[in-house]
Amino acid sequence: MAQVIITDQQAISESWTMWIRTVLLGVVTGSIFWLLSMILTRYIVDPLACGRLFNAAICYDSAPFSGNIAAILAALGGLVSMVLIGAVRPIVIASAAAAVLWNLGTWIDGLFWLEAALWSITLYAGAYALFAWITRHANLLMTGLLSVLVVVIIRISLIL
Predict the structure, then answer these.
(1) Letter string b/e over residues 81-97, b meaning 16 or more CB atoms within 10 A of that residue's CB
(2) Could you list the residue range(s) of the whole structural domain that residue 46 is in?
(3) pLDDT, tens digit, for every residue of 39-51?
(4) pTM
């Protein structure tokens, strides 16, 4: 039976290469978010909601609605990818990044496609970098509380 001994109680020893891999995964996740958001808006939500003007509210909000669906799919893809590369606490990173970037579809709606793609990539990479750094703490309760606190602070600052 294997026994894990943690010598440093403050941080889990995670190499810089793993942190860089997680940030690069954030870049990939941001590009996938942008691509999924555009595909969902143009080929699924707009034709279904705006084709017969069945529901004008959904037609008006088709880009943010597609962005929210894309955020869920990107978070699931990022979670699976982080599990495959062996990142520390991938569920915390993926869920916290999704919570922080929940309305990204609304933020990038109306931007030029290249600008929207760059903002999506940059924000996802930054969120993955931040929460990958936070999850290095050895105590799971402390990691969870700190992640929730950071998400709440960022969401409140976005409202103001």
Answers:
(1) bbeeeebbbbebbbbbb
(2) 18-159
(3) 998 888 877 777 7
(4) 0.85
